């Protein structure tokens, strides 16, 4: 049997702060970055994964991934649910590293990068794109990769199995639909807070011309500015296009309520991350005060346990899972099952470096094998940095093109890894 013989970890950073791409009220000057991991094997196929950061601290994230190497070096290459479940449990269960969380923060994100690289490897060996590799697993196999500890008061393994079994009869038909039509998308590209009014309006009009029926704007810096920018965006796209807004954790509860009442005249579709991602009660209070505006969160939610509380309390109307924040595919399956149990649509967070590439697989798996629907569901699209990936995500006429190449779409071109390596790569050493 093939074994894992090496763990390469690279600090890769892209200087997006130069053009203010990705800028918002909480993160005004991000340099989109990836703590990038490759699981080398003694066979012909390797596994690729990453943890996404926005610059400083990416070296810390890379060091955390490297600290997990003893758990995978020499290990048999994972090929099935049993092996992928065992790897996740071992990584999460390292008692000394777990102390640094538990199951949150830099170490948990590192586990996610390694687990995702293992799923990439298994899907490549099966010659399947990850979404299909997952969707072809039996309900029993999918339940076996999930850690139900701390969740069984909200969803039991038997309930999860029943959800998956109920979706099983339509899997083949939904796969065909997905391959033919792609998956609905919305775009954040017009809405970065550092963009001028002219750039915002122009990109908003272009988004509609490109087939998007939903855009998103960053808010939370200055209320008068946000009112002006929302008025410009609404005029640019018309009444038939949804506009979501994203505060990136900027507000206290009272500020969030006050701000959204001022923006309500522009019919915002949702308010994203209105307050601390850990504040379940705060999200609930905001949701109760601003309805019918939806409350969305998830990109900074640290684990399945916090998602359980957000869902069970009714604090969110839209769940935004992230492919690189929690403990990888295994934990994201748990989150998808929770969302299905509580009937909350999943609209994943994307953008960044590689997040569009990764998260498309999770949303498509959800459509085929879990929720069985894409009603009220869209995947975020940000048109930055895709050219660095071997199998980049693509969007046409407002829909993600369904990936068909084997794996998790995480592999970055060697030339990009060389150029943007920090601090020694040419992009940084000559800047």
Describe the structure.
It is a single chain. With 431 residues, this protein is of the alpha/beta class. The protein has helices at residues 58-67, 69-72, 81-93, 95-98, 105-125, 130-135, 139-144, 157-167, 171-181, 197-209, 223-237, 253-263, 280-290, 304-312, 329-342, 355-370, 414-419, 426-429, and strands at residues 4-13, 33-41, 47-53, 183-191, 214-218, 242-246, 268-272, 294-297, 318-319, 379-381, 395-396, 399-400. It has a domain at 170-416: Enolase-like C-terminal domain (TIM Barrel, Alpha-Beta Barrel), CATH 3.20.20. Strand 2 and strand 3 form a beta hairpin. Helix 1 (58-67) crosses helix 5 (105-125), helix 10 runs parallel beside helix 11 and helix 14 (304-312) runs parallel beside helix 15. The radius of gyration is 20 Å and the shape is globular.
């Amino acid at each position: 049997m093939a074994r894992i013989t090496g763990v390469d970890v690279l600090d890769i950073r892209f200087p997006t702060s130069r053009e203010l791409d990705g800028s918002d009220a909480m993160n005004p000057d991000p340099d989109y970055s990836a703590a990038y991991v490759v699981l080398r094997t003694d066979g012909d196929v390797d596994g690729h994964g990453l943890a996404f950061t926005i610059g400083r601290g990416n070296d810390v994230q890379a060091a955390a991934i490297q600290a997990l190497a003893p758990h995978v070096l020499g290990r048999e290459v994972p090929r099935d649910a049993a092996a992928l479940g065992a790897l996740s449990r071992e990584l999460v269960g390292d008692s000394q590293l777990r102390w640094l969380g538990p199951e949150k923060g830099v170490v948990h994100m590192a586990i996610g990068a390694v687990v995702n690289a293992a799923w990439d490897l298994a899907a490549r060996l099966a010659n399947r794109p990850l979404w299909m590799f997952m969707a072809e697993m039996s309900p029993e196999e999918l339940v076996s990769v999930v850690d139900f500890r701390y969740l069984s008061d909200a969803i039991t393994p038997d309930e999860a199995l029943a959800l998956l079994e109920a979706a099983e009869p339509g899997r083949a038909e939904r796969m065909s639909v997905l391959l033919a039509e792609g998956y609905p998308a919305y775009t954040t590209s017009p809405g970065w807070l550092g963009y001028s009014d002219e750039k915002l309006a122009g990109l908003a009009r272009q988004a509609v011309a490109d087939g998007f029926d939903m855009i998103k704007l960053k808010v939370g810096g200055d209320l008068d500015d946000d009112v002006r920018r929302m008025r410009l965006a609404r005029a640019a796209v018309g009444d038939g296009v949804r506009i979501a807004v994203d505060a990136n954790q900027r507000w206290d509860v009272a500020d969030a309520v006050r701000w959204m009442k001022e923006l309500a005249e522009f019919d915002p579709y949702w308010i994203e991350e209105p307050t601390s991602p850990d504040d379940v009660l705060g999200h609930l209070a905001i949701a109760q005060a601003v309805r019918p505006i939806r409350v969305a969160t998830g990109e900074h939610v640290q684990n399945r346990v916090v998602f359980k509380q957000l869902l069970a309390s009714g604090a969110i109307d839209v769940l935004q899972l992230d492919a690189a924040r929690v403990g990888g595919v295994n934990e994201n399956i748990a989150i998808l099952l929770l969302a299905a149990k509580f009937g909350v649509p999943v609209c994943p967070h994307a953008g960044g470096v590689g997040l569009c590439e990764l998260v498309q697989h999770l949303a498509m798996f959800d459509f085929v094998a879990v929720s069985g629907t894409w009603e009220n569901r869209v995947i975020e699209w940000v048109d930055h940095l895709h050219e660095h990936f071997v199998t980049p995500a693509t969007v046409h006429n407002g829909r993600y093109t369904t990936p068909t190449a084997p794996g998790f779409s995480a592999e970055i071109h060697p030339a990009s890894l060389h150029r943007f390596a920090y601090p020694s790569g040419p992009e940084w050493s000559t800047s």
